[in-house]
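Hi all, posting the design record for the shared folder.

TITLE: backbone redesign
STEP: 1 of 1
STRUCTURE INPUT:
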């Protein structure tokens, strides 16, 4: 039985086991949006921490840094141990998602 069949815990991301990339990708997108729409935006737009100058800017940087880390955590939790974690060295979730797409989205 694949991870997409049967029941799953609602709090767990869909598990990618090396096959059915496009199906997994669609389900993962819905999962991420359901967790936090801003997390989805970080994946699409990308984020690299900017220099901290002002209090306001620091607060925005902190929020985006947390969203980036949350998105990376969700993404990595969705990979089975059998899938090489070649994306775990990426600095941002957008870079991670794009590299994963190149590796498995053929």
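Okay, here is what came back for every position:
SEQUENCE:
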């Amino acid at each position: 039985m694949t991870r997409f069949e049967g029941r799953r815990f609602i709090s767990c991301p869909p598990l990618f086991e090396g096959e059915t990339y496009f199906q997994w990708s669609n389900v993962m997108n819905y999962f991420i949006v359901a967790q936090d729409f801003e997390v989805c935006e970080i994946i699409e737009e990308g984020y690299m921490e900017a220099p901290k100058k002002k209090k306001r800017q620091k607060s925005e940087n902190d929020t985006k840094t947390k969203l980036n880390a949350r998105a990376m955590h969700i993404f990595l939790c969705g990979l089975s141990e059998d899938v090489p974690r070649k994306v775990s060295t990426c600095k941002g979730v957008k870079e991670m998602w794009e590299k994963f797409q190149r590796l498995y989205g053929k």
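COMMENT: The chain is about 55% helix and 0% strand.
Let me know if anyone wants the other runs.
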